[in-house]
Amino acid sequence: MGYSSLRQCVEDLRRTKRLVQIDAPIDPNLEMAAIQRRVFAADGPALWFTNVKGSRFSMVSNLFGTRERLHFIFRDALEILPRVLRLGVDPSDFMRRPGLYLNWKTPWSGWCSRPKKVRTGPVFQSTCTLAELPRLKSWPNDGGAYVTLPQVFTEDPDAPGLLRSNLGMYRVQLDGNDYGPDEVGIHYQIHRGIGIHHARAIARGEKLRVNVFVGGPPALAVAAVMPLPEGMSELLFAGILNQRRIRMAAPAGLDLPVSVEADFAICGTIEPETVKKEGPFGDHLGYYSLAHDFPVLKVERIFCRRDAIWPFTVVGRPPQEDSMIGEFIHELTRDLMPQTIPGVKEVHAVDDCGVHPLLLAIGSERYVPYENPRRPLELLTLGNAILGTGQLSLAKYVVLAAGEDDPTLTVRDVPRFLRHVLERADWRSDLHFQTGTSTDTLDYSGGALNHGSKIIIAAAGPKRRELPDRLEDAETLRLPESLGVRNPAVPLPGALVLEAPPWRDDGTQRDAARLTEEFCAAFKPHDALNAFPLIVLVDSTARAAASVRDFLWTTFTKSDPARDLFGIGPTCVNRHVGFEGSIVIDARKKSFHAPELEEDPEVTRRVENLAAPGGPLHGIF
Q: What stretch(es) of the chain map to CATH 2.30.110.10?
């Protein structure tokens, strides 16, 4: 019935040959992350590093690196959890409403959802210092070492208690920048539960108590990234996922409970308005998030088990291990969207773009069911509802299709979905911009932290055009030679990639977009180029059109809708911006974009030598 500790899970994976123990000395400074990236890419096993340079603790990674391993770890809950979630009620209420349950296991899940208060537990067996913790650094320009699988626990200052607590995965910087010997950085993005608690502590003029758990039952780590309704504790979900109650204790001298099964607990406080620079950090969009002011945790003490293991993951350009966690959560929750936003049948935040830059959705179009031909009406309502719902609100490009147009369409087949939309889109009416709005903290395409724009693209009705899927299918393209635009390629039907000269900033950012405007002005709406309804300008066609994955990542991580979406034959009717011809997205690298992630060549060489014949990692990747 679930795991009582991380070590129990590790031993189980090793016994069933799903984990490999590595006894050779491995450096957590860049080496370990480079190994993890390669093993994940090879669909390899979990890795247990028992000889960690500079630390007395062992480390484990890639626990969640394959779908099969996730299903094995959470096998006890897989059958019942989707059924429980579909009930759409607070898990703590399950025991009071047995008539809702579909079999004998569900009341047990209701019981497991309730956190259990105890007096003490294994995490209090020992203590350590910040300096003794493993120092994982994933990318060369990271600002320091990070905790990459933290479970950051807080309670609502206005209404404390376990059932209203928040457990979130907000990255924790252990050293570097201006941190003192007893300080760590807490980076949390907008729309996160800890932000609500922090705001209330500030309003009360109080410090916010924070405990950072590392390790413990794997269910806690997955629960920390679960998009639950505001005010519902992730501890409830963790108990159901682990099929055993989460035990919490607050011994004398602790004002905030600790997960007693955790391997480590970093306990401290955040001053009401104290901030320090946090970052840079190589993040899951495939770029560095840069150094910015974020709260600082003043560490008071660190508890740890005697047999503690330090779990970690590595993020970067997708797919990485966190991609598998996202797919697992989607698998558990895919039937919930119609309950969350009635009329929305499916949503898919596209992992190849780093999740938030591109979100696809299928909805109903029932406002005027007799209208012929159909046009987007209800879809626009649904698009705005998506942008007003929790973390879905971080989406930048929201693309919607009407389910009535093709009942077999699914958002999981991204190329087919985009083809469906490009066949039907009317750029005079189907583009709906939201400007000057908040965006994902990790996305710098808008030119400033947390600032940019969004767009809803909604298409409905019959096919408007046949899409060319190769250059030979279109008439000769008349590219303006004076602009230096060249090397056309077709990564998807109806999408044309063109290589353009580098984006140059004259200091105003805006004037540097003139090339794109001049390109659009060089064509009429009926020119042959408009056979491709979507045109993307890039720095390198070879990179951007190498695969669908490369096309999606380049197009949607390197552009901001209001800043970078142009078109041929612009129109403006009643302040609605549209285009008679193709839309053109400028996805070149801009001067204000964050740097892309690249490995240190020397580290790459060392790691590849470890995997060579005779090396300790030979045969693993």
A: 6-73+114-312
Pairing of strands 451-459, 397-402: parallel
Q: Following DSSP, what letter does each residue of 210-228 receive, concatenated? A: EEEEESSSHHHHHHTT--P
CB 242, CB 175: distance < 8 Å: no
Separation between Cα atoms, residue 223 and residue 220, nearest integer Å: 5
pLDDT in tens, 121-138: 999 999 999 999 999 999
Architecture (CATH level 2) of domain 6-73+114-312: Roll (2.30)
- Unique residue bearing structure tokens 């078109």: 567
**Residue 24 and residue 239 in contact, taking contact as beta carbons nearer than 8 Å:** no
In a 3-state reduction of DSSP, which class is residue 87? coil
What is the secondary structure of 517-531 as a DSSP string? Answer: HHHHHT--TTSGGGG
160 in Cβ contact with 153 (< 8 Å): no
Torsion of CA 267, 268, 269, 275, to 10 degrees: -110
Contact between residue 490 and residue 469 where contact means Cβ atoms under 8 Å apart:
yes
Is residue 545 over pLDDT 70?
yes
618 close to 46: Cβ distance less than 8 angstroms? no
Provide the CATH topology of domain 335-459: UbiD C-terminal domain-like (3.40.1670)
Check the CA dihedral 501-504-508-509 and report its sign: positive
In this structure, what DSSP letter does residue 585 have? E
Asked if the model's pLDDT at residue 88 lies above 60, the reply is no
Quick count: other Cβ atoms within 10 Å of Cβ 618? 11
